[in-house]
Amino acid sequence: MYGLNNLGDYLQSGDQANLKVFLNQVDWLGTHAVIREDGVVVWPHDFDHQESAVRLKAPWLSANAQRFVISALVRGWRITRRPRLLELLERTLRSTQKRGIIAVFQRRTARRYILHSN
Q1: How far apart are the first and last CA of the chain?
Q2: Domain of residue 41, residue span
Q3: How far apart are CA 25 and CA 19, in angstroms?
Q4: How many C-beta neighbours within 10 Å does residue 95 have?
Q5: Which of 5, 17, 27, 89 sits a CA distance of 20 to 30 A from 67?
Q6: C-alpha–C-alpha distance, residues 61 and 1, integer Å
Q7: What is the pTM of this model?
Q8: Alpha-carbon distance 55 to 50, whole Å?
Q9: 1 in any annotated domain
């Protein structure tokens, strides 16, 4: 979100410093992408997290985090047209296509998780 906020600031102000921060964040995403055995690219969380009765053990994946990554990669590609960003996007989107996202319903509240499969 930090990167996306800086992109928004750049688009409003034209301040190149904000654009640089955003592109640095996009570069970080490229450097820290994890390529699974099935070719899908993900960004796992490296900490444990308690969500109601569910204990998520590191490494775990978040559909919420993945959507911010996808958003940043799309915008980064639109600005730079870097082929690597398009490749990451295509491989990231695969995470939502094959048994990736499940919904856990608790008291009419839907929570979505992407399951980590090793």
Answers
A1: 28
A2: 34-114
A3: 10
A4: 23
A5: 17
A6: 17
A7: 0.76
A8: 5
A9: no
Pairing, β 41-42 against β 34-35: antiparallel
Main-chain dihedrals φ then ψ at residue 42, nearest 5 degrees:
-140, 165
Two tokens at 10? 């750049």
**2 within a domain of the structure (yes/no):** no
* Model confidence pLDDT, tens digit, residues 14-51: 999 999 999 999 999 999 999 988 888 999 999 999 98
Confidence of residue 113 (pLDDT cuts 50, 70, 90): very low
Q: Give the 3-state DSSP-derived string for 57-97, with helices as H, strands as E and coil as C.
A: CCCEECHHHHHHHHHHHHHHHHHHCCHHHHHHHHHHHHHHC
* Bridge partners (DSSP) listed for residue 105: 110
Decide if 42 is inside a domain.
Answer: yes
**Helix, strand or coil for residue 108?**
coil
Contacts for 34 with CB less than 8 Å, ≥ 6 apart: 41, 42, 43, 44, 59
Identify whether the C-beta of residue 61 lies closer than 8 Å to the C-beta of residue 116: yes
